[in-house]
Amino acid sequence: MTVKLSVDGQDGKLIAQSTGLRDLRTDGDRQLQLYDQSVEYQRNGRPGMDAPRSIPGSAAGHLSVQIVESPVIKGGIRAIILESQSSHELPSSIDVPVGRDLLLTAIGGNGEDGMNGEDGADGRDGINGMDASETSEATPGSDGGHGGNAGHGGNGGDGGNGGTIEVVVHEDQTHLLMAVKWDLSGGKGGKPGKHGQPGRGGSGGKGGKGYEWEQHDGYVYSCTARCLGGDTTISSSLVRYKTVVDMRRNLALARVGTQMVTGSNMIQSIAQAANELRSPQASPGACKCHGGEGHCTGCDSRPLIQTHKQVEGLHGLNGHAGIPGIGLLHNGVDGLQGSVTIVVQKSDGSRPQEYSSLYSLELTGFDVEDENGDGIFEPGEHLFIRRIKVQNSGGMPSPTHYVQLSMVESEWLKLVDGNDSRAFLPSIRERSSVTIDGPIKVRVREREEYEIPEIGALFIRHEAVHLNAVMLWIEREISKFEFNKVVEIKYPCELRNFRTLPTVAQGSQSKLSFEVYNHGSVSIGPHGYNSRVVEIDVSFPAAFGELESEPDQWRESVTITPGDIRGGGGSRLERQLRVHNDAQSYQHVAAVFKLYLGKPKQRGPDGQHEVNLVHVVEIRMQVSDHYVIHPGASFLLVTNSETGGDRAQSIRRFVNNSLGMEIDTWNLSLYAGLDQRDQDSGTMKNILSMYHGKTIIFLGNRFSFFSQGRKSIFDVCDPEAIATAAANSTNLLFLDTPDFKPHENLINEISFWPSQSVSGTRDNISQSYQFHNVSDFATAITQQKQYSDLSHERYAITLPKKWHHVVPLRPETLAKRVAKQLRRKLPTEKFLVTFHASNPPDIIVATGIPHHKSMVASERRAASEQVADTSASDGLPPVEAYMIVEAIALHHRVDLLWDTVAGSTSNIAALRSQFVIEALTTSLIQTTHREVELLLRKAPWPDELLPSNPSKHSFEELKTMFASHLPALHAILFHPPALEPAVVVNNNVQSVLSHALAATRPQSKRQIAGQVLMPTHNRRRRAEAFLRAGITMLLRKKDCTDVEISYFFSRAGQVHTLGNSTKRNTSAAVLRMVAGLTKQSEHAVVKGRQDATDIVRSSSYLAPEDWDSRVAIAKTRSKKVMEEANEARQMLERMLVS
After folding, report:
1. Are 223 and 299 in contact (CB under 8 A)?
2. What pTM was estimated for this model as a whole?
3. What are φ and ψ of residue 695, in 5° steps?
4. Which 3-state string (H, E, C) describes 276-334?
5. Tens of pLDDT, residues 1068-1078
6. C-alpha torsion sign, points 20, 26, 30, 31
7. Angle between helices 811-825 and 774-784 (to 10 degrees)
8. What is the DSSP string of 934-966?
9. Quick check: 732 and 722 in contact, CB under 8 A?
């Protein structure tokens, strides 16, 4: 709020109104309006009137006041008016209450806004012409009138100049000027007006409309059988007729005239005359049929009609619009700034000092120091604000009166009692600065109980230190003290650099190592510069283990008191942890570390130091059982430090109980990787090598791997070890995979595993692995597959130059052709083809992991995701139970399939659940269906891959072809129990074979049409015959009759129906089977997993440079994995206590 004294100038608008300059304008407008309403416009519009000139604002006056302390109001000021020049009279003096400002104004008047020009009147529209008639022409329309010109707008009036103010004050009372404000602004120039709008031209009148009519001008006659004859003396009946017509017209007009004279009805007369003229009359001459030129009453007559037209009148021209206003209108010029003079009277009576501006104090800096000198601002400690720098940027010295400085209280910073919490500023010369030491003492408040940070978090708060300056007597706060400093409030010590094992084994003894770090700049401890109590309490759950407090003394918790900790340094402490032999495995427990610190400079009533709990850290670790080898184990489960007890136990329970198999468990966090030291040779051996031909289940979640950060199995597993395991018939299952990309990269890396460069590979290919054409190579592969797995083998094909190739084909072209031929000749195999630049070029072929080898990744399911009923799968989600069954080696699954005979007393069969039997059957249906799809995928025509009449082939020939093209079905059809007549073909075997047979039949309308249009050399038709021959052979081995065989194929045919789209697509049928068994949607079945077949489906070409690049990347990655594993093992050995 302010008290105002002013000598402002008047605004131009008020001057104009007070002098009556605007009355004429108003009356004129009113008179023009009356004139426009009473007098008819001329053709052209009236021009608009120009705006009158704007009135400028008047200049402000002069004001001289003296400022003294108010004798009647404490803290107030009195303004004594010494002189004023203004249009109104001011009081001799006024008192301004405390908290209010005195505002002195000498503001120039604002200029009047420019007025708008008048709009020009519109021109009048032209008059329309008269329409034409039978007796008169159309007249033209008249032109439109021109619009009136626009009136010109006016410029804004100029603002008046600011006035002058003189403020007189005694040198001991210049602090009173903080309550005085002044404004000497010049008046604002008026805004410009606007030009009027020109009048629009009138529209031209429309010409009169034209007129068109028809007139009856007699008849044309023709003879008929009714003609009577007549006089033939006249040669032309038309000439005679015209004469007669003219006579009749004259007679009719005479009758009309007579009737009008006599007062008869005119309309009736005209109608009677017209009727007489239109009526045909007989000619006195003979008609044409009697040799004359006239006509008789027997002749036919046709009226003669003639059209007449009067054209329309011309339209009048449109009038022109009026001329718009031109010229740019301007704002009025602002008035000039006035001036102020501050006159300071001297106590000694000397000449007063004059200044043109007031003092202006601004805080530009200060320092904050802590009480104990360690550089840490700690709860409960005092802070000191020192070296406060204030600048006077004004034009006169600051007051000699007290200016008090203090801190603004905040959430964490509080003022102390007494004078220690404030300082005072001296007078500062104009445009100079001063630094005062202060100090201002403040206190950091204590931390409350509820403000203890969460476990693992440090207590840190950030608080801004603000100062304020108050001018005493008038109690005014100086505004330009915005400068602040943010201080970090925390404790000087923390716990960090923990070194513990992520996983500890039952009965093991390891070290717990950590550091107490001192962030302060001085030592802290019992005898340190900052003498404080420092204690650390460490505890561990008694059910799992205990801590060593003294040599050979073990407790649930221990207290550690370190010595003095130097500033900026740490003290490393260590304790031993012993895990109970009977501690529950795969449980996560925490060692709790609590750091206590004595309060700064404070003691309790008993003289003891009070302490604060300043940091709490929980180090979680996993308790694991040791790796134990079970003879005959079919599975290896690879866990990590974040595997929970329920997770590991549910997988092991399912394998043990539902599958009736043994499973070993390897915790890679317990052993720092997948390597184990061989007890005989002492060398490191990869644990995967002990499970070749079996199934390895990896948990693909991310976990902390010693000091190397977060990793997954894809990061810590040597790809060469994985490739070797896969090449040795080991199935791989990755559960809990958060991202399929690492799995995709791994499959691309190990499917062919180019371990050597192209040149190195060629040098190591033996003679028996070299060929001269693709056909011989394909035959050799077909034959060899009966006896061994060919994964990761290397072959060379040297193609001789063709006689008809004048220019030899490029090696790249040859290699791509070989890859294409292999896709046609061996569609269910995977080959990687490149070339070695020799003369002639050698085509290098690497065999890949077969499709029937399972290398599947399953997505990680969220903890909140609802899990289907797991009772049938021993507590494991059905989808994971199914994937474990599917991951069993093919030969083992086939063993189990033939073993699921009703009434069997096999121990294996007795331990399996109904879910496992269904999962086993479904998985083999899926496997065989996939390989049939691969065989038929993109099959060329004509095709002779399979025999046209397989029933004529021998048992051994069929066996060889099945092993080459359908290895999964080969394993079923040629399994030892399949060849024994006593072993029944159970329903599960029949179901697998029926679905495989259905997969060979057309799956779409296009494939149906293909078989009809191309009945021969069709691979799908041949595949069906081939599989039927194999099944027939199996059934005949079981001594089945032809009727029984026909009955089997009849039942198998029900799986597939050409006319039913639902049963025709066996892929969709198999997907529905898997979805129903795993209690998932079909979408989840497809998207929730990734198989090696989805990544590498067939043979492909790879450029030699890309081959060599893969080799280099694989070696680099293997080296990195080995180095990280060695580093992890070294840390493990340091932390274990022997």
Report:
1. yes
2. 0.69
3. -120, 130
4. HHHCCCCCCECEHHHCCCECCCCCEEEEEEEEEEECCCCCCCCCCCCCCCCCCCCCCCC
5. 899 999 999 99
6. positive
7. 40
8. HHHTT--SS--SS-S-GGGS-HHHHHHHHHHH-
9. yes
